[in-house]
Amino acid sequence: MRFSLRKDLINHCDINVIDFHNGQDVNFIINVYSNSNQTALQVLRNNTRNIGIIIVMTDNFNIRDSNWDPSIQYHSIHIEDLMFIADSLDLKLAMLINLGPTRFADNQQGFNSVLDLVFMNPNNSGFNKHTLNPDICLPLDHVPLIIEVGIKEKNIDYTFQAIKKDSEKEEAFIKDIVKDIRNIDTSGLKNQVDIQRCTITLSTTFKDAWSIHSMTKRITKHSKEWWNEQCTMYINKYHETGNINSWKAFKLVIQNAKRTFFDQKIQEIATSNKRPWDLMNWVRKKNLPAIEAIYHKGHPCNNLMALWNALYSSYNSTENRSINMRLLDRINQYDDIDWPPFTGQEFINAIAKCSNAFLPGPDHVIWRHLKTLISDKTCLSKIMNIANTCITVGYWPDQFKESTSVIIPKPNKASYNIPKAFRPIVLLNTMGKLIEKVISHRLQFHLSANKFLDPNQLGGIRQWSTIDTGMYLMHLICTSWAKECHISIIVFDIMQFFPLLNHDFLHLCLAKAGLNANVLRFFRNYHSNRSTTYVWNNFTSQKFAISVGVGQGSALSPILSAIYLAPIIKTFKKRIKNLKEKIHTDILSFINDDLLIY
């Protein structure tokens, strides 16, 4: 459990609001000191609506009343406020097991009293079970309260299923998948039902192979990537014998395991993925802030449902929002594009440079596994048949429409207390992503060839990069200097670009680009009935229906976003060209990061 002080809910010197996570629940503890003017009660009364589930409210309320102190013969004028606050938080006054004063007088003339109270939910198993411990109160004048709070009846065990890389289990996992895919009949695919049948069989194949060969791993603070079965065997042997020789043997095995692991890591980075930055701290996993630090529409997210609704509202804010389609009236209709069946080489090229460090989707398959699959000609032909029928029929299977949106922080933000300081990265079915990659490569080729994509669109398109953007910009700057002219640049960012694209406008852009009826029908179905679940740290939401945007993490999202922007850039250039006063203006687009140059 992780505790945090919540000054954002109530910022007062006499009130501490503390929260902690227990599983997927967020609970609160309120610690109160109320002075003779009862200032804390006034603050609490005005702020209880901001707080979520209260486990306990306790400490020195500084109220003498006959309800809890037998030595007092009257009721306090403040008891009504205190009970109103407790009722609004669904709390009741809990009674001590061993009755007695909670504060001892400073001198012999004074009298002892009951000032420290405990309010709890009456359904909590710790209700009416707190006790006084006067033996340890000195030198304090208040007696410590020992409070038992019921939280959960069982321990939370963090485990996950995994298959170790390059192990016999992984080899058997791939072999089983290859064998089952070979047996799938894809020869007579004619309609949506046939495609759905095949993809269900594919999903079942992956699921069954995973359940057979994956092993349960327990996450602890001591978990290490380099740990292997030999380490486990030797540490168990040391625990059995307890002698120094077993310990020395265990330390030697650890040393060898580390050396082997890191040598392989360095070799892989040097020769295979060529990503030396993988060794740097800044590419490692970053923990997100606690959910209660997130505000949406001025209110804190005090529970997970509030967080999920805040994420959904932020990343789907353009849902049901009207858009002006007349912009496309000024764009010329491009000639129809011929779309022949996919070839095996297209699949091989699409997957060739995919990173083996890719995070798997719901099917637990990564690119390394798929590279083995498509190296089998029979499996490749089955996948090609499914992909080609999807285009011909105009259908994208339901299994490929489900995604997991992992929330990650955007870099260099001044504050991370709103959903828009984060971005959702979607994890999709890996087989579906492979087909998306092939479609993406073909779209980029055709739309670059027929010049629907503007030459100044340097993002989301193959063979263009930020280096080209920088070189072109430097060319313009140096040319202006040579002509003794000044150049000005406006840099702007389109906020939440990927999640907020309008599907109707995108489909009209695809039609203007010259895609044939089958491909257009495919994309309309591709964007329909999609769903996602959000992941925040170790918490996972229920499914949410998605009707806008293209998932950041999908192989198609870069090219689709470029197609979405192409008519806007064409219209801008056309209007600048038609101005009476000639202005030397240009625009560079790198997906949602753009530059206006003049």
Describe the structure.
- The chain has 598 residues and is an alpha+beta fold.
- Helices cover 38% and strands 16% of the residues.
- Strand 11 and strand 12 (299-300) form a beta hairpin.
- Helix 8 packs across helix 12 and helix 14 runs antiparallel to helix 15.
- The radius of gyration is 32 Å and the shape is globular.
- It starts with a strand and ends with a strand.
- The model has no long low-confidence stretch (mean pLDDT 85).
How confident is the prediction overall: mean pLDDT? Answer: 85
Instruction: Give the strand content.
Output: 15-25%
Distance between the termini: 56 Å
Largest pleated sheet: 6 strands, mixed
Number of strands: 20
Shape: globular
Q: What attributes characterize this protein structure?
A:
about 600 residues, alpha+beta, six-stranded mixed β-sheet, five-stranded mixed β-sheet, about 15% strand, globular
In short:
The protein is of the alpha+beta class. The protein has helices at residues 39-47, 79-88, 168-182, 192-213, 229-241, 244-272, 304-315, 344-352, 367-374, 377-393, 398-401, 430-449, 466-482, 503-512, 517-526, 557-577; strands at 3-5, 15-22, 25-32, 53-60, 92-94, 116-120, 131-132, 145-146, 159-162, 215-218, 295-296, 299-300, 402-409, 422-428, 489-493, 530-536, 539-540, 544-546, 586-590, 593-597.
Task: Give the arrangement of secondary structure elements.
Layout: E1 3-5, E2 15-22, E3 25-32, H1 39-47, E4 53-60, H2 79-88, E5 92-94, E6 116-120, E7 131-132, E8 145-146, E9 159-162, H3 168-182, H4 192-213, E10 215-218, H5 229-241, H6 244-272, E11 295-296, E12 299-300, H7 304-315, H8 344-352, H9 367-374, H10 377-393, H11 398-401, E13 402-409, E14 422-428, H12 430-449, H13 466-482, E15 489-493, H14 503-512, H15 517-526, E16 530-536, E17 539-540, E18 544-546, H16 557-577, E19 586-590, E20 593-597
Helix pairs in contact: 1-2, 3-4, 4-10, 5-6, 8-9, 8-12, 10-15, 14-15, 14-16
